[in-house]
Task: structure prediction
Amino acid sequence: MAAKKQSARSTLPDFEKALAELEALVARMEQGDQPLEQSLKDFERGVALARQCQAALKEAEQKVQILTRDAGGERLEPFEDE
Result:
C-alpha cells in the first residue's frame, strides 16, 4: 500500500500526463467518427483518468491546507489584487 503513496514531485508529472491523455481522449471522442466499442473503451479510460486527476488535486489541496494552517506563527493572507 505504501507503494501507492508518491511524493509531490512524482505526483505532479503523473497528473500532467493523465490530464494530457484525458484531453486527447475527449478531443478524439468529440470528433464522433469512432466505432461505438472504441468510444466506450475511451470513455472508460477517461473516467479512470479523471479519478486519478481528482485524487492528485485532492492530495495537493490537503498539502496546501497543512502548509498554510496557522500553527502559532504568522498567518498567511491572500494576495491583494491592485
The first helix runs from residue 8 to 31. The two ends are 47 Å apart (CA to CA).
